[in-house]
Amino acid sequence: MQNSITKLFNIKYPVIQGGMIWVSGWKLAAAVSNAGGLGLIGAGSMYPEVLREHIQKCKKATKKPFGVNVPMLYPEIEKIMDIIIEEGVKIVFTSAGNPRTWTNFLKEQGITVVHVVSSVKFALKAESAGVDAVVCEGFEAGGHNGREETTTFTLIPMVKEQVKIPIIAAGGIGTGRGMLAAMVLGADAVQIGSRFAATLESSAHINFKNTIVDVKDGDTQLTLKELAPVRLVKNKFYNEVQELYQQNPTTKDLRKLLGRARAKKGMFEGDLENGELEIGQIAGLIHQIKPVKEVFEEIIEEFNRVKSLIINI
Fold it and tell me: How do residues 265-289 score in pLDDT, each as one tens digit?
């Protein structure tokens, strides 16, 4: 299954694990890399020295390539970037900011850079900034999304029409069928988050993992667009947000309700009532918590089986 992305990252399969906050620690990243994909450590929920520890442990747990996902809104991003270079990380995914800010710096260090976008406009900006590939993330994704609400399967062909660099599809993909569909539409690889969040190696709290398994269609919603659009499971906190919206709140009001560490409280500490529970719409197709190896094998097997059926039609 060799293509531009497998060659770019030196991996067996064009499957990238999402660098999710509070979920994507070294155990998950190493397991995905060992299975033949590209594991990512999610730096967005880590203090700089915690990230260093996760990178060092990941290097011991896998000899395969892995990377670090860095939201550029991170308050100590300079320290994060220094640690990435000091620890010899060779692949960095950036998001939530201008790709021009760090791309040249990273590439001068011999690092492969990928940027996450949610529109054609930002895909073109990322390409002009010199990134090696883009992740095109649709409205279906968990966590923080673009404001345009463009779905993955409309975004991919539109971006494919405009850019020359490789495209990684993200949002609403967690099966072999979804992977094949994304690649038929023009993606060179897929990035999978929610399906890997509900694995044994994920650093998410077991309460959150069980919630992912229980989620059905319609149980998540994109909200808090005035701050940073985020897809949440409909729980007590989500309901409080919706009640506040009935009062025409200011952004200050929304920030006050959000407070600090809501995502940590929900996804890492397991507070299902008062925490922020970020997950994608694909959760409705996730029915079991399994080891990464088993999940990976199922995705690749289904991809190959469905692809062969289509070829024989």
Answer: 999 999 999 999 999 999 999 999 9
Residue 114, CA distances (Å) to 95, 105, 237 in order: 9, 13, 33
Confirm or reject CATH 3.20.20.70 for domain 4-203, answering yes or no. Answer: yes
**Which pTM value belongs to this model?**
0.95
Instruction: Please name the helix (run of DSSP H) or strand (run of DSSP E) that holds residue 124, with its range, or none.
Output: helix 120-129
**Domains of the chain by residue range:** 4-203, 206-282
Contacts of 162 (CB under 8 A, 6+ apart): 120, 123, 124
- 143-144 β-sheet, strand order: 143-144, 230-233, 220-223
- Residues 33-74: tens digit of each pLDDT: 999 999 999 999 999 999 999 999 999 999 999 999 999 888
Identify whether the C-beta of residue 193 lies closer than 8 Å to the C-beta of residue 141: yes
